[in-house]
Amino acid sequence: MAILVSGFGFSQTISQDSTATKNQQQNAAQNILSGNISKGVTVGGYAEVDYNQPEGVNGKMDVHRLVMLLGYKFNDRVQFITEIEYEHVKEVFIEQAFLNYSLNDNLNIRGGLMLVPMGIVNEYHEPTTFNGVERPNVDKSIVPTTWREIGIGVSGKFNEANLRYQAYIFNGFASVIDTKVLGGSNGLRNGRQKGAESTVNTPNFSAKLDYYGIQGLRLGLSGYFGRTQAADDVQDIDGADIGISMYGLDARYINRRFSARGQYIQAILSDVADYNSLNSASLGSELKGWYVEAAYNVLPVSREQKLDAFVRFEKYDTHAATKDAGITRNLGYNRNEWTTGLSYHVALGAVVKADYQFLDNAIDGNNTKGQLNIGFGVWF
Amino acid sequence: MNFKYIFILLTIFVIMSFGMPKHLQKRVDKEVKNIFKTETFTLNSVVFIPETVNQLPATFHDNNWFHIIDNDSLLGFAYIGKAKSKADDFDYLVMFDTNLIILKSKVLIYREDYGGEIGSKRWLKQFIGKTYTDNFKYGENIAAISGATISVRAMTNAINNVLASIKILHEKDLL
Question: What's the DSSP call for residue B121?
């Protein structure tokens, strides 16, 4: 055999594009009709439909999120990606809209409306990728998912070192949006500008490192540093903005039928006392939260279907520190929760979920109630 | 010449041209050099008759299967294929020794952001030393990667298909 083939030489030919109509332009509709569109276009999406039933009050049924993903690859280097989101049926948002330029395997430059890499769920928020009908509450009150702003940055991977990195300059949270201020139960959540006519006066820096060099384990280290954005008329007044330093550590592990994840997030806020007195707000000077979760697939791993039974413990406090904030600490914001339930992956990309949440906080004799959640999620 | 060699002659065409995109070829060359410790090799694309190709679970067209030749002797084989990640294709390479044992697998070009972790050297090591009698099962003898489930499954299936194809070719005495 070796002798048979070795007599032939090796030569290289450059393939010629033989299309005679190369200079003809087509509009979008013609593109679709001629079938060319399939070459560069990516269509996808995800959706979550939930039923939440708190104890003792009426429940809620909601098409929580319906997101259409559209991407277009202009060539191997240049790609546009956008996610158009309907929340609760009636609110329309853009979740991502960025242009990516790939210089090589190790370096991409991207700009536009992008996800802030902090913790696990903000980046990996598709419903088939996490357990529980609702996202973990740490990923709501401490990391305000889906957290996205307009910015520019770099990302890439080093396969030899099993490292992925991201670093961005982003626009920050708004100090105040209309009458909504930061603080209370959900920390920074009200300040998300989401790329909608967003105010900018100081840049914020965000970075994440992911390490996946240990079989089955993935570790993440995130950081976010900057200040909130104040409107022109107040920006020189004390308390017009606050400083933010947020750190995140996350881990995900999977081995056959067992999987686990955990994350720890801490945000140190500065100039909060002035902010609170200027805006009659109750923002703590530190936000802190963590969770650990374990899951076991009760079906054989050889099956396409997966039935994960999981349990998660979360502890998070949006008033982790209030001394420097000029407010009284609200122990009701120091919460701990158990969530346990099932995620039945009926196909790759389709999951039916049910769980129960035991909610509690640091107030003695508080009468927080539990909540039952049932829903489905798809990702394609 | 016995019947077997006539059969092989009728079944194999060696393609003289090498129509791989340049940047892909550069990466393949680099890997071959590293694994086979040679600077003077040639890669000969080998195709089989359509009846054979149609029986193979992996794609075996013009530029998929290569014989790695140095000084008239066969050093090993290389398979270059494409598989689908979530929203795009990726190119991969699998190199074999003359006993059809995997020496190395590599993701040559990965195009989307999601799932690129399958390029991890550590993860790809799992395929080394295996051959056409082996079969990989996601989550059993191939570790999952959090955040890259779709690509891990795609690469695992792709390598299974290449090995199953090699098994068929081997049984037909074509390898």
Answer: H
Judge whether B35 lies within some domain: yes
Query: Is residue B56 in a domain?
Result: yes
Q: Does B100 touch chain A if contact means CB atoms closer than 8 Å?
A: no
Interface of B with A in 42-61 (CB under 8 A): 42-44, 46
Determine the length of chain B.
175
Q: Which residues, numbered 330 to 359 in chain A, qualify as contacts with chain B under a Cβ-Cβ cut-off of 8 Å?
A: 348
Structural domain range at position B63:
21-171
- With an 8 Å Cβ cutoff, is A17 touching chain B? no
Q: How many domains does chain B have?
A: 1
CB A319 within 8 A of CB A330: yes
Residue B12 lies in a domain: no
Q: Which amino acid is at B139?
A: G
Three-class SS state of B51: helix
Residues of chain A with C-beta less than 8 angstroms from the C-beta of B138: 301
Domain membership flag for residue B71? yes
Digit-coded pLDDT (tens) for A199-240: 999 999 999 999 999 999 999 999 999 999 999 988 899 999
Spell out the alpha helix ranges (H) of chain B. 3-11, 22-36, 50-53, 121-124, 149-171
CA-based nearest distance B7→chain A, Å: 12
Q: One digit per residue, pLDDT tens: chain B, 175 residues?
A: 455 555 554 455 544 445 678 888 999 999 999 999 999 999 999 999 999 999 999 999 988 999 999 989 999 999 999 999 988 889 999 999 999 999 999 999 998 888 999 999 999 999 999 999 999 998 889 999 998 999 999 999 999 999 999 999 999 999 8
